[in-house]
Specification:
The structure is a single chain. With 286 residues, this protein is of the alpha/beta class. It has a single domain, classed as TIM Barrel. It has 9 helices and 10 strands. Helix 2 packs parallel to helix 3 and helix 3 runs parallel beside helix 4.
């Protein structure tokens, strides 16, 4: 069992898988861009996700969809800070800031975010220092390239080995900088510089990432990989998303990032129950 240490002597106990609800306060995110651009609407959407069972709300002010253009740090702060501040006043739910920028990390954590979710794995100048100073938990994600170009021609010799090696190096960098293991999460980065075959290989071999001995966060909700397999549009991928989430939980994921919280909460309860029985049976026979 993992306990994720958070600021203020708080912790997130991961004895069972939990859902991280996606709240994009952007005009151009691939799935929900423009839906939560005003503060009141964004907060209402977040509170609905909490009521549906989300343990974490992941607030993002810059789209990381393929081809997305960067957003200045001050604009990103303008979008996310009022939402985080309002959530801190209205709910005890954990709040994550989805950003690559150290300035946004610092401001968001001052506003009340207690998890930094960085698709760039703290590689931007100043990001590592910002994370250390914040005391927040950190999710390190693998991404080949950067959002504007990551899907143009991704290539791997062995995607699982390369993702594992990258995440291991970033974990080591965090430990060297003073971030303890108890504050770290890892994310293989489905859809971030990966072809469909790469995504499927990662999903099938998630147990290999257990070698890093850290909680595993997975986000496949509504992504293009689901559309490639089903032929369905971005708003028609609920069934595929909960199926993928269930497989991820069976393969060891402990945090599922999703736009569709209620359905995902139910799906992972079933998957976690099956996983518990499987592990119990394995311990008896071993």
């Amino acid at each position: 069992m993992f306990n994720l240490e958070l600021p203020g002597n708080r912790r997130l106990t991961l004895s069972e898988p939990v859902v991280m609800g996606v709240l994009n306060v952007t005009p151009d995110s691939f799935s929900d861009g423009g839906r939560h651009i005003d503060v009141s609407g964004a907060v209402a959407a977040a509170l609905r996700m909490v009521a549906d069972g989300a343990a974490i709300i992941d607030v993002g002010g810059e789209s990381t969809r393929p081809g997305a253009e960067p957003v200045p740090a001050d604009e990103e702060c303008r979008r996310v800070l009022p939402v985080i501040e309002a959530l801190r006043r209205q709910t005890d739910c954990h709040v994550s800031i989805d950003t690559m920028k150290p300035e946004v990390m610092q401001a968001a954590c001052r506003a009340g975010a207690n998890i930094i979710n960085d698709v760039n794995a703290l590689r931007a100048e100043g990001a590592m220092q910002a994370a250390v100073q914040s005391g927040a938990a950190v999710c390190l994600m693998h991404m080949q390239g950067e959002p504007r170009t990551m899907q143009l021609a991704p290539r791997y010799d062995d995607v699982v080995d390369e993702v594992l090696e990258f995440l291991g190096e970033r974990v080591d960098a965090c430990l060297a900088a003073g971030i303890p293991r108890s504050r770290l999460l890892i994310d293989p980065g489905f859809g971030f510089g990966k072809r469909l075959d790469d995504n499927l290989a990662l999903l099938a071999h998630l147990p290999r990432l257990a070698a890093l001995q850290l909680p595993l966060l997975v986000g496949m909700s509504r992504k293009g990989m689901l559309g490639q397999m089903t032929g369905r549009g971005v708003d028609e991928r609920l069934a595929a998303g909960v199926a993928a989430a269930s497989i991820a939980v069976l393969n060891g994921a402990l945090i599922i990032r999703s736009h569709d919280v209620a359905a995902t909460v139910d799906a992972i309860k079933v998957a976690a129950s099956v996983r518990a029985v499987t592990r119990a049976s394995s311990s008896v026979t071993s």
